[in-house]
Specification:
With 425 residues, the protein is of the alpha/beta class. The protein contains 13 helices and eleven strands. The chain folds into two domains: 276 residues, Alpha-Beta Complex (Spore Coat Polysaccharide Biosynthesis Protein SpsA, Chain A); 120 residues, no CATH class. The strands form three sheets. A seven-stranded mixed sheet has the order 3-2-1-4-6-5-7, with helices on both faces. It has a two-stranded antiparallel ribbon with strand order 8-9. Strands 10-11 form a two-stranded antiparallel sheet. β1, α1 and β2 form a beta-alpha-beta unit. The protein is elongated. It is a multi-pass membrane protein.
Length: 425
C-alpha cells in the first residue's frame, strides 16, 4: 500500500508500548494489510527499556503506513499507559484516533470496523468490547485475570452508573475516539485504564460498542501487575470523589490516631493534656501526609520527602493556633478534652486545605503538562520533542506524509511526519 499525501490521515492508530520489541513487526504487517485503502498513520508512544524503538525503525521500512515514535525517557513517563495515550493524541494528525496495545491481543483487522462505526453512527467513542455478543475475553491469561477484569468492570459501573450506562467493557484498551470531543490537556491519567477516565470526564458522549475477540499475547510478558491494580482503584476513587472531599476524609480518618494517642498519653500515661494533644497531633500529621500523597494529591514526579517538612511545619503552625482555642474550651468553658479536640480540628480542616493546596501542592508539572510546562495551545502545527533535551520544537510542515523525518534522539530513532493536525482545534 502506498500512503496518500493528498490530505490528513483518516485515522491515527496510537500504540503505547513497553518492551514489545518482538511484537512490533507482526503488528505493523497486520496493520498495513488491514488498513489498505485508508489514509492513516501509526504513532508509537514508547516507554520501553529494551530494543523496541530500534525494532520500530526496522519494521517501518517495509511498512506502507507512515510511522512515528515518541520514546519517553524514564523521567518522562508520567501517567503510565494513560499518559502515553494522551501524548499520542496530542501528536495525532487525524480527526479520529484508535488506541490499541502493541502485544497483538487487540486485532488490527478490527480497526476499519471501529472507524466505519464512528462515521456511520456519528459516535464520539467506539469501544471494542469483549463482553457483547460475538466478543471474547479468552485471551486473558488464567481465571484470575478474567475475574479481575470482569470485577473491575462491575465496580466501575457501580461507581459511575449514569456515565457508564450501556458500556459493557469499561476496562477495554481497544477503542476509537473522535479527537474534538475531548480536552486531552484536562485529563490527569494515572495508570493503564485511560478509557474509564475519558468516559467519565467528558459530557454528552455518543458511545457505541463493537465486538472483538481478545487474543493471546504473542511474545513478551504482560505489563499488568498488582501495582497497576492499586493505581486503578486509586484513580477510580479520585474520579468519583472531589479533591476537597478526599482531603476532608483523610483529615477525619486522622482523628482516630490523634484521639487515640492523646487519650493513651493523658489518661494511661498521666501526661498533661496539652503535651498529650501535641504528641497526638504529630502522629496524625504523619497519617494525614501519607493519605494526602496516596489519595488526594499524587503524581509520579513528586518526591514525598521534599514536601513532608513544609507539610509538618504548616500543620504545627496550625497546632500553635489551635492550642489557645483548646485551652479556652477546656479550662475556660469546662468542655471535655475529647470534645474540645473535635471542635478545634473541625475548624482547622477547612483552613488547612486551602493553605496546603495553594502552597505545598500548588499546580506543577504533572497538573499542567507532563513536560513541566503550561499546556500548549492546541494548534495545527505539531510539536516535535527531542528525547535528549525534553524541549519542544515546532515541526516543519513542508515534508510530505510519506517522508517521515528520522532524527536520532539520544540513541532513539524519532520518526515524525510533518503534517497539519486538523483533528485538534
Amino acid at each position: 500500500m502506498t500512503p496518500s499525501t493528498a490530505g490528513p490521515p483518516a485515522v491515527s492508530v496510537i500504540v503505547p508500548t513497553r518492551n514489545e520489541a518482538l511484537n512490533v513487526d507482526p503488528l505493523l504487517r497486520r496493520l498495513d494489510a488491514a488498513l489498505a485503502g485508508l489514509t492513516c498513520e501509526v504513532i508509537f508512544v514508547d516507554d520501553s527499556d529494551d530494543e523496541t524503538p530500534a525494532a520500530i525503525e526496522v519494521a517501518r521500512r517495509s511498512c506502507g503506513i507512515p510511522v512515528r515514535v515518541l520514546h519517553r525517557a524514564p523521567q518522562e513517563r508520567h501517567g503510565g499507559l494513560g499518559g502515553a495515550v494522551c501524548e499520542g493524541i496530542r501528536m495525532c494528525a487525524a480527526a479520529y484516533v484508535v488506541v490499541m496495545d502493541g502485544d497483538l491481543q487487540h486485532p488490527p483487522e478490527t480497526v476499519p470496523e471501529l472507524l466505519a462505526t464512528a462515521r456511520e453512527q456519528r459516535a464520539d467513542v467506539v469501544v471494542g468490547s469483549r463482553y457483547v455478543d460475538g466478543g471474547s475475553a479468552n485471551g486473558l491469561a488464567g481465571k484470575g485475570r478474567r475475574l479481575i477484569s470482569s470485577g473491575s468492570n462491575r465496580v466501575s459501573r457501580l461507581v459511575f452508573p449514569r456515565r457508564l450506562r450501556g458500556v459493557s467493557d469499561v476496562m477495554s484498551g481497544f477503542f476509537l475516539l473522535r479527537v474534538q470531543a475531548f480536552d486531552v490537556d484536562a485529563l490527569r491519567p494515572d495508570g493503564y485504564k485511560i478509557l474509564l477516565e475519558l468516559l467519565v470526564s467528558a459530557r454528552k458522549l455518543r458511545v457505541r460498542e463493537i465486538a472483538y475477540e481478545f487474543g493471546e499475547r504473542q511474545a513478551g510478558a504482560s505489563n499488568a501487575s498488582l501495582t497497576q491494580g492499586v493505581r486503578f482503584l486509586r484513580r477510580l476513587f479520585a474520579l468519583r470523589v472531589p479533591r476537597p472531599a478526599r482531603f476532608a476524609l483523610i483529615g477525619i480518618s486522622g482523628l482516630l490516631p490523634n484521639l487515640a494517642t492523646t487519650w493513651l498519653l493523658h489518661h494511661a500515661a498521666g501526661l498533661n493534656y496539652l503535651v498529650a494533644a501535641t504528641v497526638g497531633t504529630q502522629v496524625a500529621i504523619v497519617w494525614n501526609f501519607v493519605g494526602c500523597e496516596l489519595l488526594v494529591w499524587h503524581g509520579p514526579e513528586r518526591v514525598p520527602l521534599r514536601r513532608f517538612l513544609p507539610f509538618l511545619l504548616i500543620n504545627n503552625a496550625d497546632l500553635v493556633l489551635r492550642l489557645p482555642l483548646l485551652t479556652l474550651l477546656v479550662d475556660g468553658w469546662g468542655l471535655g478534652v475529647g470534645l474540645s479536640m473535635l471542635i478545634t480540628l473541625a475548624v482547622a480542616v477547612v483552613a488547612r486545605y486551602f493553605v496546603v493546596d495553594r502552597t505545598i501542592y500548588r499546580p506543577r508539572s504533572f497538573d499542567a503538562d507532563p513536560r513541566g510546562e503550561s499546556p500548549p495551545a492546541q494548534a495545527s502545527v505539531p510539536m516535535a520533542r527531542t528525547a535528549a533535551t525534553s524541549s519542544l520544537l515546532p515541526a516543519s510542515v513542508s515534508a510530505p506524509v510519506s517522508a517521515p523525518v528520522c532524527a536520532p534522539t539520544g540513541g532513539v530513532v524519532d520518526l515524525r511526519p510533518q503534517i497539519e493536525n486538523p483533528g485538534v482545534e
